[in-house]
Task: inverse folding
């Protein structure tokens, strides 16, 4: 039986870790920072989570558990293809906006232990990308969109949403923009990315 105090402490640690990871990134965050933010000592933090990596993995699994059903809902819905592109881009950008260090973690884990990452993200289920692909093929046949390989279209959507977060430090430095300006640009991309993609494939 889970002790309510333990559950509350763990939730407090998770909330503190998300705040510290957001402020300092995965590499910059320290366990002491997280312990201080949670209002506990470092020994207690290590009692619940033996390492920063383990703590982040737990957060990642929680995010995946909540986010992936939303993607499934979008792809399985009766919406038009264009509506699905708009919904996917908005949902994906909003999720990563809240946890911008996620793409770096995913890329690192995908290189280091891809099978473990896939298991963490999807468990025994797969997002219904095939439904999206079928709809793309159907709308090509109906003459609604130009011929395009469905997976190429999906990769375009994914990469255009995620790349700004991956390149954020370089982009901020090269373009000389502030964090506030970057955040405003990311907010604009919720509309701009689907508009760009739809314009590229629409007949």
Result:
């Amino acid at each position: 039986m889970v002790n309510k105090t333990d559950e509350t402490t763990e939730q407090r640690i998770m909330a503190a870790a998300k705040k510290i990871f957001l402020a300092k990134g995965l590499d910059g965050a320290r366990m002491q920072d997280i312990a201080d933010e949670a209002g506990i000592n470092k020994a207690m933090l290590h009692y619940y989570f033996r390492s920063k990596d383990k703590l982040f993995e737990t957060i990642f699994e929680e995010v995946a558990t909540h986010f992936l059903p939303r993607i499934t809902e979008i792809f399985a819905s009766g919406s038009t293809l264009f509506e699905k592109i708009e919904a996917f881009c908005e949902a994906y950008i909003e999720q990563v906006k809240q946890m911008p260090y996620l793409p770096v973690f995913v890329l690192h884990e995908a290189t280091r232990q891809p099978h473990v990452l896939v298991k963490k993200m999807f468990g025994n289920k797969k997002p219904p990308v095939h439904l999206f692909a079928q709809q793309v093929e159907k709308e090509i046949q109906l003459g609604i969109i130009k011929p395009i390989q469905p997976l190429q279209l999906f990769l375009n959507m994914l990469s255009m949403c995620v790349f700004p977060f991956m390149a954020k430090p370089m982009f901020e430095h090269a373009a000389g923009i502030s964090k506030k300006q970057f955040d405003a640009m990311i907010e604009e991309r919720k509309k701009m990315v689907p508009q760009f993609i739809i314009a590229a494939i629409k007949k």
